[in-house]
Structure of AraC family transcriptional regulator:
Amino acid sequence: MKITEIKSCIVGPALSAEQFIAEHFFVFLAKGKMNGYDGNKHYVLKPGESCLVRKNHLARYNKVRDNNEFEKVIIFLDEAFLRVFQKKHSIVFKKFISKDAFVKLKKDDLITSFLLSLEPYYNNSGNISPAFSDLKREELLLILLQLHPELSDILFDFGIPGRLDLEKFMQQNYKFNVNMERLAFLTGRSLSAFKRDFKTIFNETPNRWLVKRRLQEARFLIEEKNQKPADIYLDLGFEDLSHFYFAFKKEFGVSPGEMIEEKKNPIF
C-alpha cells in the first residue's frame, strides 16, 4: 500500500475545535495540505509529512483539499498515557528548548511502516478500538523518541506554564478565540490575577481590549491591505461575520462595506 492511500483515523481522545491545545498530538498528512499558525509562525504540512502539535499552546490550523480529498492520521499523546509510558520506559532528557507549537518530524521508514500497520485495526468510524489504542500509541512514541530523542523534553514536561510578560503575550495572541481562563493559565496566573494585571497594563478589561485590538487590525487589513471582511474575520477571532460587522460599525461608525466603498470613491 502506498503511504498516500492511508485513510483518516484518530487514536485517543476526540479532537477539539478549540484553539487551545490541551494535549499533545501527532498528525500525519496523506492527502491535501494543512496550514498552521501559533501566533508567532506559520507552518505548512504537505502530503507525506508529519508533525507534533504541542499542548499548552494556542494554535490554529485549517485543511486544504486536493481534488476534494483530505486524509490525515491523528494520534493523541495525552498526559495520562504519557505518565504510564514514563513509568514503563527509561526516559532521557536532552534540555531541548523550542517555543514552536508545531514541531516538524523527519520522514522515516519506521513512521511509514507504523502508519501502514494501523489499517487492520480501523473500525467503520475510522477509529481504532480501545483494546489496541494504547499499544499502537506506545509503538509510535517509541519510534518518535528513537528518531527525535529531544522530544522527551516536550512530551514528559508535566509542569504548568510559568509567569509570562502579559503585554507581550497578548499582543502576540490576541487573534486566538479562547476564554479568559485559558489565557490566564497560559500566562501563569489565576483568573483574578490575570484580570488585575491586565487592568494595570492596558487600563481596560480583557474582553473589551480584545475586541478593540482585533478591530484595529481589521481596519488596517481592509484599508491598507485591501482584504475582504469575509476573508479575515475568523483569523481575527470573531465567531461569525454578522458579529464582526456589528462590532466594526459600533467601533468606527461605518461598516466594513462602507469603508471599502469610501476607499474606492474618496470624497477628496
The chain has two domains: 3-155, 166-264. The chain is about 45% helix and 15% strand. The chain has a mean pLDDT of 90.
